[in-house]
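Bench log. Compound arrived from synthesis this morning; before running ITC I wanted a structural hypothesis for how protoporphyrin IX containing FE sits in the protein. Inputs:
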Amino acid sequence: MLDHLNPADPGFARDPYPYYARLRAQGPAARVPLTNGTHAWLVTGYDQARAVLSDPRFSNVPPQGAGRPGPDSPARRARGCLARHMLNSDAPDHTRLRRLTTAAFTPRRVDALRPRIEHLADGLVTELAGELDRHGTADLVDAFAFPLPVLVIGEVLGVPEADRADLREWTYRVGSPADALEPGAVDEAWTRLHAYFTQLIGHKRESPGDDLFSTLVHDASEGGLDDGELLAMAFLLLFAGYETTMNLLASATLMLLTHEEELDAARRGGPGRWAAVVEETLRHGSPLEGTTWRRTTERVDLGGGAVIPAEDSVLVVLAAANRDPGHFPAPDDFQPARYLPEGRRAAPHLAFGHGSHFCLGSRLGRLEAAVALPRLFDALPGLALAADPAELPYRPGLLVRGPRRVPVRRR
Ligand code: HEM
């Protein structure tokens, strides 16, 4: 009999891997009782994760009436907008929405962001250095891993520099638990973000810039996207782009600060070695712990005795698939060398998902980390962890994974 799964448990949040290993040993998918009285099927094996993510019998469309009930309010309506994005849709809607976004996110356009990302990363490192001088310690998540992806999404969306501080503040609030801030602060941030994005779309339509979002707004008008779909797209780019990359940066810095030999190797090894650090952090740290929820459209037999009835909830646990010992020897060890081009390269990790919903921002996420990490560690050569790594709190829940704080000091 399986234990109940309580994603809010701090011990589980810090180290869910022994639990996932037990599930994996049971077969292709395990029916897990949740503490809220419901159940879900968790897919933890690498091969099964790929199979499910490329099988159209697993739908991304949330069931009718999903979401918490509550009185109508501007904040609720703002949140509701998010529901119409491509991650919540299946073909043919998904194909239509995705085609437009792919056209705006070409490799050339993403790569052209490099100098801006360098500039933004340098600015944050300078602020961080100042904070260390003044206070002796600083939190790398607050000062670096969180703001950088938000500022970069600001570039993607073409948010004027003068508005970036607002964007950063609202994003911070909507990503915080409601009880961590003063009453109403989270709702107010949702409402402000909604109003801001609505205005931004109107502005890009009238006077497009050379940002990716202007291209999207223009193509959307040609391709029949309505304003609601475009608004959902702006929200999706913000949320899909910042929490994931934030966790990638937070986990990578924590790994390097606790594996000094790897930090030295990256410093000596140049871009190829840094790229390997990024890939191994994606595998080992899995910034998205699980994909979004899927739902079976019919009864699915996954083999090995796992028969999922129609209309059941399924979660593909990327963090578990990325540590499947059948594909990654010593899966719990942090070994960037697995991803060096000259080595026997490890299997591709699933941190960006698989199949039709494969991450649209993978190139941008990788670029941000590849730019930011060497700049941080070059500018602050004596950086050291200012806490016991075993005590650091992790984000609760099954969706995102990463340390909530990475306190640092100068050596
Ligand atoms: C390290 C950073 C990132 C990680 C680990 C990551 C991971 C993922 C994963 C696993 C999915 C698939 C989810 C599912 O199948 O349910 C996904 C989808 C998506 N990601 Fe990312 N992501 C990252 C960065 C970004 C960035 C920077 C952007 C955009 C600026 C972005 C935009 C998207 C979008 C739009 C989708 C939906 C694609 C679709 O439904 O077809 N991501 N991401």
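What the model suggests: Residues 86-87, 98, 153, 156, 236-237, 240-241, 244-245, 248, 287-288, 291-292, 318, 351-353, 357, 359-361, 364-365 surround protoporphyrin IX containing FE (CB under 6 Å). The CA atoms of residues 238 and 290 lie 19 Å apart.
ITC booked for Thursday regardless.
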